[in-house]
């Protein structure tokens, strides 16, 4: 009996000791949760399969994709929508490389994101001994993200997560890589010591106030303007300083031009909106105020024919990154700081008696705007059969107007270009598209994140080529029963479906797809709703029914295969050969 009691006592002691231990798996999960990060997008596999299982068991939402790039795109969009770093979890080597594309894109677009990847052990990688999926991931990631860290000891997980969070969201946001070798997860340590090693990041993105002299300089330039213009970029939308930005625009009385993901910061039908007069205001403005926008290729680098005569403009630029100033043209009045603080400082300096822009300028903008809107209305009024881009988007334009709270995801070439100018937005951060790089393939990942992070219904307008990059993720959408309605503008090819092989052999032209593809049947295969739409009325009814039901739906919208244009509206970037081969 004494011996039995001793055995029982030993078992109790062992059990007590087990309860006082923790490991790398649990420390990572607890570090993320401590900092308010509760959703992971990723693809399970060696060596992070159990991490996903444990995270779900401890209350995190783990959204499993079919490909890491789309999980990464979802994480990036989650970061944009929430202001917290979106999390993407991948396996090592090839899985890491798949996620790296999204990480680089997030960094380019200034979206906070953390790519967490399992990796091979250092002692094997450094000697190139051929481990399973061996790769020096940290070295590869560094040039493509804002920061990269490797954690080798369980006691440093809290510090590693904290550094990753702060790097992702502070200053100009971006992507961060966190390298976690497989052996790290199984490391064991005292539970109390482990808990004490975790950090809750305090004020990860502190306000950065502009210098008073910079504010006064900007106001001085603005006071001298005869034809001022405000350009709102997606940085202004990300800042979530909606009321302050709106006050700045309305008190100044200045016409504003929203970049595509800034649409809705102020409604597109706002009287000061100059979106329909874009060419005029870019060319004729004498002072341009850039709010969270960069003078990159999307704005012709601030120079060239679209901007009028060289030296005809002065620029005021609000950006949190000092190095952005003068990147393409001279910035007469740089305002370095966070957008909310800079806009508030400008408002305070304006006071209550700020003079409106000259009436002649406002009348010029309004006249051009009215003329262009009338031309657009005429095109949208034509109910063509088969549908072209204008007739199809005319239906979707009304759907969005009637449902301003829905999330709009948009990608493609012609599908993107036409939708961007035709569909008005009325609320901030409701439009997600291809961003700075203008890449294809963000659609399904963005749609999943938009539904998960906001709880809103999602309308995803896709070109048929763009959809091909991430189309398998419709299974993900169906698996999680997300309220996503996908509309594919199907014109049988890239740009158009009318190209022919000049050699006359049986291979189709490289831009042509299978004729009459039924994408809607793909959705039905996964248990979603598929609809084949061949008319504007049919498309309108199908989209409204999908939004009403909240069920995963894919609408195959048949578009005239000849209605597209080469490379959309950036055909000038596609070099054309002038050499004729004999």
Describe the structure.
It is a single chain. The protein folds into 3 domains: 19-196, 3-Layer(aba) Sandwich (Rossmann fold), CATH 3.40.50; 212-365, Rossmann fold (3-Layer(aba) Sandwich); 381-566, Thiamin diphosphate (ThDP)-binding fold, Pyr/PP domains (Rossmann fold). α5 links the parallel β4 (86-90) and β5. It is built from 23 helices and 19 strands. It has a 6-stranded parallel beta sheet, with helices on both faces. It starts with a helix and ends in a 24-residue tail after the last strand. The protein has 582 residues and is an alpha/beta fold. The mean pLDDT is 94.
Tell me the helix content.
40-55%
Uncertain runs with pLDDT below 50, 5 residues or more? none
| Radius of gyration based on Cα positions | 27 Å
Biggest sheet descriptor: 6 strands, parallel
CATH topology of the largest domain: Rossmann fold
Oligomer: single chain
Mean pLDDT: 94
Strand proportion, as a percent range, falls in 15-25%
Helix segment tally: 23
Class of secondary structure makeup: alpha/beta
Rough outline: globular
Strand order of the largest sheet: 3-2-4-5-7-6
Q: Looking at this structure, what is the CATH superfamily of the largest domain?
A: Thiamin diphosphate (ThDP)-binding fold, Pyr/PP domains
Number of domains: 3
- Please identify the top-level CATH class of the largest domain: Alpha Beta
CATH architecture of the largest domain, by name, is: 3-Layer(aba) Sandwich
Terminal Cα span: 102 Å
The count of DSSP E runs of length 2 or more, i.e. the number of strands, is 19
